[in-house]
């Protein structure tokens, strides 16, 4: 009997990093233009994956970053500065998450949190 194909319990569309959206759909979802998405790509805020045909594909996580960039640009922030702000915000959030994990590990090991 041939081996069974692995079952995928999680739907890829539930994955924030799954590149599910085309450039046109992504731009529509955040209320921007494809040119805006290209510009934030050039500023290295997001790097979309490419389909086999070379088309840009965006994840929900990337769309959240793009939407935040659009908000800042709409408020008058230059696009390069908006991208840098978002990168720093994202790094700060990641550092906070790691800090909380480490604090949880430390207090979970029997040591006091302030030790």
- Count of separate structural domains: 1
How much strand?
Answer: 5-15%
The CATH topology turns out to be Multidrug-efflux Transporter Regulator, Chain: A, Domain 2
Which structural class best describes the helix and strand composition? Answer: mainly alpha
Domain HTH merR-type: 20-88
Protein name: MerR family transcriptional regulator
Pfam family, one: MerR_1
InterPro entries: DNA-bd_dom_put_sf (IPR009061), MerR-type_HTH_dom (IPR000551)
Please characterize this protein's 3D structure:
- The protein has 115 residues and is mainly alpha-helical.
- The chain has a single domain (16-108), classed as Multidrug-efflux Transporter Regulator, Chain: A, Domain 2 (Orthogonal Bundle), CATH 1.10.1660.
- Helices cover 54% and strands 6% of the residues.
- The chain is built from four helices and three strands.
- The chain has a three-stranded antiparallel beta sheet.
- The longest helix is centred in the C-terminal third of the chain and has 30 residues, at 79-108.
- It starts with 20 loop residues before the first strand and ends in a 7-residue tail after the last helix.
- Residues 1-9 have low confidence and may be disordered.
Helices and strands, with pairings:
Layout: E1 21-22, H1 23-30, H2 34-42, E2 49-50, E3 56-58, H3 60-74, H4 79-108
Helix pairs in contact: 3-4
């Amino acid at each position: 009997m041939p081996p069974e194909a692995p079952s995928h319990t999680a739907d890829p569309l539930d994955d924030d990093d799954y590149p599910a959206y085309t450039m046109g759909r992504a731009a529509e979802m955040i209320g921007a233009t494809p040119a805006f998405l290209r510009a934030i790509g050039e500023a290295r805020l997001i790097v979309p994956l490419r389909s086999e045909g070379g088309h840009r594909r965006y994840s929900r996580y990337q769309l959240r970053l793009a939407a935040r960039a659009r908000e800042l640009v709409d408020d008058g922030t230059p696009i390069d500065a908006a991208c840098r702000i978002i990168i720093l915000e994202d790094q700060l959030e990641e550092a906070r998450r790691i800090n909380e994990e480490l604090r949880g590990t430390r207090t979970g090991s029997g040591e006091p949190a302030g030790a």
